[in-house]
Design goal:
By secondary structure, the chain is mainly β. It has one domain (about 15-110). It has one helix at about 95-110, and strands spanning about 10-15, 25, 40-45, 55-65, 70-75, 90. A six-stranded antiparallel β-barrel has the order 1-2-5-4-3-6. A hairpin with a 2-residue loop joins strand 4 and strand 5 (about 70-75). Residues about 120-125 have low confidence and may be disordered.
Length: about 120
């Protein structure tokens, strides 16, 4: 399962080239540190709006080096969007992660339980 990190968020400083298929995303200074170790899925969407099926894209981040993310585009049934400077990008819990948790519960026979860390806090809630 992918690593997760709370509040993994950034703003694109330098857009990928070409903007609908380029895979190199440069974030604002220092924002790469907010993301977990790759690989993980990330959602990208325009500034000043909420991510929606018609304006957002899910990509698979395969590397984080400083403030540069390498992302395989148009994942999880989404279409490539034209990405420009100012676009927002974050790691979010999505359907694929939820399905993996469900499968883990079924495999362990713990469908009615939550997964908890050592402090008793839900890992996914």
């Amino acid at each position: 399962m992918d690593d997760m990190k709370n509040f993994a968020y950034g703003t694109v400083a330098t857009a990928p080239t070409p903007n609908t298929s380029g895979e190199t995303f440069v974030l604002q200074t220092g924002q790469g540190a907010t993301f977990p170790t790759a690989p993980f899925n990330a959602t990208m969407w325009p500034p000043d709006v909420l991510p929606r099926i018609f304006n957002a894209e899910i990509g698979r981040c395969t590397a984080v080096v400083g403030d540069t993310l390498t992302i395989t585009r148009a994942q999880s049934g989404t279409s490539a969007q034209p990405i420009f400077a100012g676009f927002q990008i974050c790691q979010r819990v999505e359907e694929l992660y939820s399905q993996a948790l469900s499968a883990m519960r079924q495999y362990t026979g713990r469908e009615d339980e939550t997964f908890e860390d050592d402090e008793g806090v839900d890992d996914y809630g």
